[in-house]
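Sample 1 of the test manifest.
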Amino acid sequence: MATHKIRVTVNGAAREAEVESRLLLVHLLREEFRLTGTHIGCDTTHCGACTVLLDGQPVKSCTVLAVQADGRQVETVEGLEKDGKLHPIQEGFWQEHGLQCGYCTPGMMMTSCALLARNANPSEAEIREAISGNLCRCTGYLNIVKAVQYAANKQKEGAHVAA
Amino acid sequence: MSPPRTSAEVSGMGHSMKRKEDPRFIRGKGNYIDDIQLPGMLYLDIVRSPFAHAKIKSINTDKASKMPGVLAVITGETLAKFNLHWMPTLMSDTQMVLPTEKVMYQAQEVAAVVATSRYAAADAIEAVEVDYDPLPVVVDPFKALEPGAPVLRTDKKDKKDNRIFHWEAGDRAGTDKAFAEADVVVKQDVYIPRIHVASIETCGCIADFDRVNGKLTVYMTTQAPHAIRTVFALVAGHVGLSEEKIRIVSPDIGGGFGGKVPVYPGYVIAVAASVVIGKPVKWIEDRMENLQADSFARDYHVHAELAARKDGTMTALRIKTIADHGYADAAANPSKFPAGLFSICTGSYDLKRAFAEVDGVYTNKPPGGIAYRCSFRVTEAVHTIERITDVLAQELKMDPAQLRLKNFIPKEKFPYKSALGWEYDSGDYPAALKKAMEIAGYAQLRKEQAEKRARGELMGIGISSFTEIVGAGPSKHFDILGIKMFDSCEIRVHPTGKAIARFGTKSQGQGHETTYAQIVAEELGIPAAHVQVEEGDTDTAPYGLGTYASRSTPTAGAAGAMAARKIRDKARKIAAHLLECAEDDLVWEPGKFSVKGAPQRSKTIQEIAFAAYTNHPPGMEAGLEAVDYYDPPNLTFPFGSYICVVDIDRGTGMVKIRRFVAVDDCGNIINPMIVDGQIHGGLAMGMAPALLEEISYDENGNIQGGSFMDYLLPTAMETPRWETDKTVTPSPHHPFGAKGVGESATVGAPPAIANAVVDALAHLGVKHIDIPITPEKVWRILKEKGVAE
């Protein structure tokens, strides 16, 4: 099988890999780069456990080929914490009990980050719509909604302080 | 609820302490099965049957064996050499690991490939050539029982039909008499469909056999690691696996809900492969395998009858059920309970007479059935009684809330002996329902419904007042393969007053690392932040039966309190020595002993712990630790009342849950935040089978709903903003009055939703709709009644 040399920026760091054409991005991240925070939960692009940001857009990395990430930026859950400080979305999930088994959590947080990047002040309905491609079996979603609201408020405070 | 006895710093019971497990999960640093990579690890993939029932004429592995990276192709014949091609189920039935003669359901394991990579293994399974000869398929359990139906279990020499068991409980003659004397009798068929827990993490394992020291380590997604170790020792003892050389490690688990209790063939094949090849072998099922082949839940065909007086007093309940178990009885019930705890079906009502019977049946479907976040068939029981209670209310033209209030077991009758033999520990059912009605604004909702109905709008209000039976269980009745259903805790207090506590259970998201630490904090006054909780490694944790059936708090949690109390007893002796007083002169408050009448003379638990290693009394053993194996004296009976409000779209038949009020009573609460979270999640998993989820089969045994394309889990869009509240009725026999909560909402929610939908359509003459209540089902009814838009 043909292989390709690809260069991907993962959480700000340049990475290289020699990959088969068919290798999925999620397997590149998990098995080549050992970033196992991105999970796999289905075969049909429904569950969203594998969500990462590709050039800032949330994608389900089980449905993206590794070669499609060549030359692009990938952000995963491992990149959320900066300089030992949790990202507001991580704080929100912890504070509001937005996770139980933790398996859907990384994908759920990445989707939420993308939402907050394009809409700093989402309504409950907008949050629910944004995360509707991410399945959670444990929480019944209410505390996830609260976690995203917490992060939105936290980011607004941060922006206020910065201003 | 009374305020916490401990400070926020100690965080004993009643504190909404943030979870101790979360720092790793929010950083993507959980350690789930597929995250583990061992040096030299191989990958296993499985060939599965396209037929529901077929003779295997031949399996040709030549092509697959020659593919790049392939080390072995394993068939039933390979395993038969070691007599490992069949295995026992937890219900003393047998199931195939890999077949040698025929397949019994679609997606059954047929052969396995071991290769150097996941992709190579997946390629190779496509190259295994299997020649099948299809056999007649038995899908319908009623037809399976008809004379002349093909007998499926031809492997059992004396088996002449497809009946697995007949079980019954209660007084048949007395119940029949009560029915004969009743003013009113209502009858209803209720199908509780086959569903799948579909935890977001599927099942998997890494079997790692070390040839040098003969030790087998299996990392696996199991809710019951200790029991699994014993099962492995019993099943594979004849090939030299001895229990002290087996270590089961259950890492972080991405949801269990009952689906990770059984031993699946994939685990056993991986173990066999690792033993034969001498390298670690990883098997991770994909979602379709998970939905199509793992143990299902429910599949109960219930016929229920309820007798009553004209005034609405319920007098007797009679239930006959056909249980479709697939081709093997692979339920994960306590051994003496083939129909689980279905005999809780008299529910919250003071029914003097009851009789229930269940017949288990073989069909060409995957084996089961396990619980779907419930305690052994409690959901089936609750759905039946709560549904038929509404059928009776409709028949009598009574308000369903009033009918329930009239028939509840009165508070003063607890402990209450039910007609089917259980002793309910405590309850205050009217309080929970009245609270739910108040929060929901029940009278106002009925008024609104009447106004809407006059305008042709469809709005329904549904109630469910459930009673659960959890915390299995007392050793007199409860065992799995003979092992009594106690659970355990071992606590060691270190010299500096910090502690490690190990338990026989295994969290799958319930938050044990936090709540168990809070139990120890409550009992010893050591801050929960300094109590490290561990479970899931059979080499280190004390033996226990695991986490399912809401049993962790009632059993292992109780063991935690009892072990802590043993430590406190020793601490009292040490404190008396340090303070030079008699033990009886000491008073305990969380975290310290002080001398009666001289509170300034005291020793903290930290000072006592240090003394246990540095200055212990002469004649006393050093150290401060204890183990407790807790055998509960009774089960616990959590309860609650739920009110659901739905609106139905006359154009599409879509049911929208507008409000859902849940008042739960799980006794005393360890962590209110976690309890609320458990209820939210349980409600979503109750809504799922009520409106969305079903696994069905066509007449050829082809699965319908075998992927997330058509097996629909609730998303954040359909899920309402849950409104939760509580009453607190402590369990009188549990060490700290708790009852268990993880499954209450899954059990209680489906009938509230179904009752709401039927209520919305009751004026059109609708009396019952089977779950899942899909838009199509509702639309067909609207069409038939001439009200579809």
